[in-house]
Structure formats: structure tokens, C-alpha cells
Sequence to fold (180 residues):
Amino acid sequence: LCFIPTTDAEQVYCDVSSCFIRPQPFGILQIHPGQLSGLRYVSSAVAHRMGVQEHPPLDDMVEKARDYCDIFHELMESPDHHADVSKLADLMQYFDTRLSEFTNDQFDIVKSLRWVYTTRKDFVCAADAYIRSDALVMHYGSHLFDFADECYAENARAVALLRECGMQSWPTAAQFATAM
Fold:
């Protein structure tokens, strides 16, 4: 029975199992904020009692993230399109809010995602890139190392997740020696 107002203009109402309380990436239906404010309609506690979940299952979100990254890779390779890579930073921010929920297998998948857009105009996994530093990029050039695009540096939660996934702030002395 579809009776819960959503934020989707095309699907105004949905059933309890197909919407969620918190904002989600990928355009997943979110319950209308007015329903949760506690001021006009129902509180989040009431929504929970009705069976509305706060977030979609993490397995589904990790799989969607993998697909989402593939779409971004294709868009960036096409000369006719330009993808907004800050959307990937938003996705990282969302995952950072759920970091404690990941199983080891799920987190291994997240760590392996090639979702860090670099100054070399390529996508790499977090462990293969460094936090962008204009001083580093200017001094050593982006030809030696993969530095994350500046859109990530502006998103503290995205950076926190990338650090958890192995991104470093600075190349080590051994990495500099190897690159030279």
C-alpha cells in the first residue's frame, strides 16, 4: 500500500519497504522531510514503528556504488560528456556515515573501487592516490604521482573515508625515490 510521501516528484507516495528516512545517493526514494520533522506530520520514531528503515541495505549500496563508478568512467571517457566528480565525493561522504556498518568483505569492495579522480584525469582506488596539495602538485608535478582532484579535499567526510581506504597525505621517501 503506497501511502508514505516521498521526495520524488514522479512517485509521490510509496510503500514502507521502498523508501528510507535519510538522504541517499543514487536517487533512492527518501521519505518527505516534512514527514520526519516532528512539526507537521510524523516523527522519525513513528516512521521506524511503521517499518521505514533509516538506510537501504549496505550490500545494495556497495553494489550500486560499483555500478555508479563504472558509469562515471564511461562518461569521463566520452568526449561529449563531462561527469561531475564531486558526486563521487558525495557518495564517499555517505559511506563514511555508515563506516561502522561495513563487513570486511563490503569494505574490501569499497577499498577497491576506482572512484578517486586524479590530477592526471584518471580514476584510481584510494590507496593509489594522495590527498591533493597544491604545493606538492606544483613542486613535483602531477606526472610523478596521482593526486586526488580538489573536489575531494573540500569534503572532509570523503577524505576521512579515503584515508580509511588507504589514501595517504604525502608520498613516502621510498615512493619519491622510485618515481624519480
About this structure: DSSP finds nine helices and four strands in the chain. Residues 32-42 have pLDDT under 50 and may be disordered.
